[in-house]
Structure to design on (319 residues):
């Protein structure tokens, strides 16, 4: 029986920090409103020349180094992103070239804020099917490019960044189970319904969101998917050592933890410093808790996320 296991993590945040005080000068908002409604105090913003693949490259190099493998040992690259460098080639192919990786399949996954969970579940299946040994799985986003910086209800929420893991074949799990869901009938409550091409605007190429509807939907499905993951593994929520939720809003995170009876001390929170980095948020939070020594060998870790589509999912793993 083949299993997959995360053997290295990496993260990258662009140098520029945009604080709530900076945003007070851009739109009619306040540090107090943003902190009390979302828990966010700052977010990182990519430089003009930085694309999703550049952020991904930094995070990937760190994950590969932590895994102790060589670039040419990577035999699958999956990039989760909603803000690709271009329509095609995929950001995964661009990343492959920048890394100098050769002769491996590379493709993008588009599941918005659930993208990393979708990508990790996909890589796990490749490994368990014996189709690859070392997968590079990345979440990378430059949401600053798809925000309407005049819309205070959305521009204060998001940030840019990338997180990556190397998932390798092993004799022991590793990933215990993955659970993916989607319901396209909720597509209108969170979307970017347009594009810009050659300076021509089609539709609305910026993020629009019915915040309240998204909030309620997120709290409901996250609880459901966590219980689904626990039930499949005959575990209780008290068996979870670390919950690594998608980092959209501290109130969603607290509400999910409370419903599950998990103390906030067991929840990894980065939304305060990163904002919502969509597909990058879970691997960035994971990398933070691995590098600061919170996550230890043998512990049970649950990743969960929800995003536009709507999509949602969870991955339960033993570290
Ligand atoms: O990654 C997955 C996708 N995203 C999410 O999961 C986000 C889910 N939703 C949320 O996190 C919350 O719904 C928000 C943070 C977006 C909004 O919080 P809320 O408590 O649901 O506030 P609200 O939308 O009900 O707005 C309350 C008030 C409104 O004013 P009125 O109508 O009560 O006078 C808004 O106009 O707050 C106003 N408002 C703001 N005020 C200051 C909205 N944005 C801002 C702002 N600064 N930035």
């Amino acid at each position: 029986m083949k299993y997959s296991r995360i053997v290295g993590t990496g993260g990258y945040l662009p140098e520029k920090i945009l604080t709530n005080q900076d945003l007070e000068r851009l739109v009619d908002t306040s540090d107090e409103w943003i902190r009390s409604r979302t828990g966010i105090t700052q977010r990182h913003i990519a430089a003009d020349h930085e694309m999703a693949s550049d952020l991904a490259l930094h995070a990937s190099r760190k994950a590969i180094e932590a895994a102790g493998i060589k670039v040419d040992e990577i035999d699958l690259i999956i990039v989760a992103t909603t803000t690709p460098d271009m329509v095609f080639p995929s950001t995964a192919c661009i990343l492959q070239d920048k890394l100098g990786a050769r002769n491996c399949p590379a493709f993008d996954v588009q599941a918005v804020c659930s993208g990393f969970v979708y990508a990790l579940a996909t890589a796990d299946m490749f490994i368990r099917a014996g189709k690859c040994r070392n997968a590079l799985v990345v979440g990378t986003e430059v949401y600053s490019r798809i925000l309407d910086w005049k819309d205070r209800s959305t521009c204060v929420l998001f940030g840019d960044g990338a997180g990556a893991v190397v998932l390798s074949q092993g004799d022991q799990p590793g990933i215990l189970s993955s659970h993916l869901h989607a319901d396209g009938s909720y597509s209108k409550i969170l979307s970017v319904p347009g594009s810009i091409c050659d300076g021509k605007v089609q539709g609305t190429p910026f993020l629009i969101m019915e915040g309240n509807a998204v909030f309620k939907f997120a709290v409901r499905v996250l609880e459901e998917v966590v219980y689904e993951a626990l039930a499949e593994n005959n575990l209780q929520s008290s068996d979870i050592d670390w919950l690594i939720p998608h980092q959209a809003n501290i109130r969603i995170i607290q509400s999910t933890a409370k419903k599950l009876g998990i103390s906030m001390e067991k929840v990894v929170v980065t939304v305060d410093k990163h904002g919502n980095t969509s597909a990058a948020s879970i691997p960035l939070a994971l990398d933070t808790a691995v590098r600061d020594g919170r996550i230890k060998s043998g512990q049970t870790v649950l990743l969960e996320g929800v995003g536009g589509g709507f999509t949602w999912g969870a991955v339960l793993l033993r570290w």
Q: What stands out?
A: The CA atoms of residues 229 and 316 lie 7 Å apart. The first helix runs from residue 20 to 24.
